[in-house]
């Protein structure tokens, strides 16, 4: 299958790019997409939430009242969870939320997302470029030809171009990705997906089974 290539001015330049049907025209798996996005969000979690139990809280060790004669239940100390300033029952502790996802499922999710973005006309194959100045304003001029200011945009590169990343890091709605390190979350929620012409060739080979 072929896709039309756009110039940096947002218009067609008359060229076409070959897209592998095994990558850009597969049956969309909603389940794989769901698990891939959840996996990324779980791996990003810091997991530093921490509470203290009654054994760890720094509070008085004295009995709140005497053992007998008050009519109340026996109280060992003021660190009981039912008192203000006491410990927490079954509270969160630091933990690692990350987990590994099956490789085939993750690849299927990425191919489903690439197919979905192409079917929904959110994907544009753009001729190769770089931002030699590394200036944000130069990147912004190019993006305005494809997306509105508030639209979430994903730019997929063939290689890790330092100047493109530098030019795009101050644009809040732009997410720059390498073809071999795609993000399921960004591809799912991106309103515009810009794929460089050389990156499209790499995607054809990288995700082809």
Task: Summarize the structure in words.
It is elongated, with a radius of gyration of 27 Å. It has helices at 21-24, 30-44, 103-119, 136-143, 162-168, 184-189, 197-206; strands at 2-6, 12-18, 123-126, 153-157, 174-178, 192-196. Helices cover 32% and strands 15% of the residues. The protein has 2 domains: 2-46 and 103-206, Ribosomal Protein L4, Chain: A (3-Layer(aba) Sandwich), CATH 3.40.1370; 51-91, no CATH class. Helix 2 (30-44) packs across helix 3 and helix 4 (136-143) packs across helix 5. The chain is α/β, with parallel strands linked by helices and 209 residues long. The mean pLDDT is 91. The chain contains 7 helices and 6 strands; from the N terminus they run ββαααβαβαβαβα. The protein has a 6-stranded mixed β-sheet.
> In the CATH hierarchy, what is the class of the largest domain?
Alpha Beta
CATH architecture of the largest domain: 3-Layer(aba) Sandwich
> Kindly, what is the distance between the CA atoms of the first and last residues, rounded to a whole number of angstroms?
17 Å
Helix/strand order: EEHHHEHEHEHEH
Overall shape: it is elongated
SS-derived structural category: alpha/beta
Largest sheet: 6 strands, mixed
- What's the CATH topology label of the largest domain? Ribosomal Protein L4, Chain: A
Strand order of the largest sheet: 2-1-3-6-4-5
Measured as a percent range, the helix fraction is 25-40%
* Strand runs, count: 6
Number of domains: 2
How much is the average pLDDT?
91
Unreliable stretches, pLDDT < 50, 5 or more residues? none
């Amino acid at each position: 299958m072929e896709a039309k290539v756009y110039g940096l001015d947002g218009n067609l330049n008359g060229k076409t790019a070959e897209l592998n049907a095994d990558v850009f025209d597969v049956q969309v798996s909603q389940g794989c997409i769901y698990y891939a996005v959840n996996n990324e969000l779980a791996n990003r979690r810091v997991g530093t939430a921490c509470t203290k139990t009654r054994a760890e809280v720094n509070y008085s060790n004295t009995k709140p009242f005497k053992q007998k004669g008050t009519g109340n239940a026996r109280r060992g100390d003021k660190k009981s969870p039912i008192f203000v300033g006491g410990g927490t029952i079954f509270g969160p502790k630091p933990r690692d939320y990350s987990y590994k996802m099956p490789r085939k499922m993750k690849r299927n999710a990425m191919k489903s997302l690439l197919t979905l973005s192409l079917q929904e006309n959110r994907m544009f194959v753009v001729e190769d470029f770089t931002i030699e100045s590394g200036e944000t304003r130069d990147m912004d001029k190019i993006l305005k030809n494809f997306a509105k200011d508030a639209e979430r945009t994903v730019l997929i590169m063939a290689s890790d171009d330092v100047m493109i990343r530098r030019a795009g890091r101050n644009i809040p709605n732009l997410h720059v990705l390498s073809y071999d390190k795609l993000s399921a979350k960004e591809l799912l929620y991106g309103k515009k997906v810009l794929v460089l012409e050389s990156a499209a060739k790499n995607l054809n080979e990288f995700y082809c089974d």
